[in-house]
Amino acid sequence: MTIPDLAVHRPGPQPGWVYLVGAGPGDPELFTLRGARLVAGADVVVYDNLVSPAIVELAPAAAERIYVGKKAADHSLPQDEINQLLLELAQQGKRVVRLKGGDPFIFGRGGEEMEVLVDAGIPVEVIPGVTAAAGVAAYAGIPLTHRDHAQSVVFATGFLKEGKVDLDWPMLARPHQTVVIYMGISRLADICAQFVAHGLPPETPAGVIERGTTHAQRVVVGNLATLAQRVLEEGVRPPSLTVIGSVVGLYPKLAWFEPQDQPKSSPLPHAGCAVVHGKGAA
């Protein structure tokens, strides 16, 4: 089926609508066709910090671009005000595309925004995106499931509303599964300690991927006993994703992505070693 054939069955952006569009994990080539069409027809693009500039530039020259990105302790606009902004723009009859890093409904607060809009009678469409867990792990060569290692995968957030990490640790620390932690880099030492305290061996492989799928991607791997210190030594910063489970041990063998501004690296060590790979690697 050709792209024009698809477009016949999917209308472009409508006046007074809000489109919650997942922009993917960083690489603009992972953006969906539906998302690209909607951005190209938008009156207003409201976008987050993690959205690739190349995706924002798909908008028409006359379109308004509004940045509402959030970083740790630095929110350009509080969430309640973002909700109100989307509502007011739609009420003005504008075609509003809300670009969110990853997927809108996976730690993207898309559900919160949609609730406000639906309560006000605003039509909303949700366009899924490649969530960071899937995209970033794939670019790092870490399969989230594997018959020999993990029969389930769990996504969890390392940042809660009260600023505390209070998760279901017994459930997360089960064997034979992979756990992906979003937004937990500043609490990594506590997170690793909780996994050990709830039954996972300290030597369980664990890794952090910084700016995954982009030219600045870095991967730091070790285990629950060593990872936090390794990340501290390497100066890893957000946006970063943490993966815990024996699948991380496959990284040295399966790593395939070379950031374009990096020379080819030397052969990677065996899975038991702690390694850093990518931009800024030692």
UniProtKB/TrEMBL annotation:
Keywords noted in UniProt: Methyltransferase, Porphyrin biosynthesis, S-adenosyl-L-methionine, Transferase
InterPro entries: 4pyrrol_Mease (IPR000878), 4pyrrol_Methylase_sf (IPR035996), 4pyrrole_Mease_sub1 (IPR014777), 4pyrrole_Mease_sub2 (IPR014776), CobA/CysG_C (IPR006366), Siro_Cobalamin_biosynth (IPR050161), Uropor_MeTrfase_CS (IPR003043)
Pathway(s) annotated for this protein in UniProt: Porphyrin-containing compound metabolism; siroheme biosynthesis; precorrin-2 from uroporphyrinogen III: step 1/1
EC identifiers of the protein: 2.1.1.107
Tetrapyrrole methylase domain segment(s): 18-227
Record flagged with keyword Cytoplasm: no
GO molecular function: uroporphyrin-III C-methyltransferase activity
Keyword S-adenosyl-L-methionine among UniProt keywords: yes
The organism's place on the tree of life at top rank: Bacteria
GO biological process assignments: methylation
NCBIfam families assigned to the protein according to its UniProt record, in alphabetical order: cobA_cysG_Cterm, PRK06136.1
Family of the protein in this entry: Belongs to the precorrin methyltransferase family.
Record protein name field: uroporphyrinogen-III C-methyltransferase
Organism encoding this protein: Thauera mechernichensis
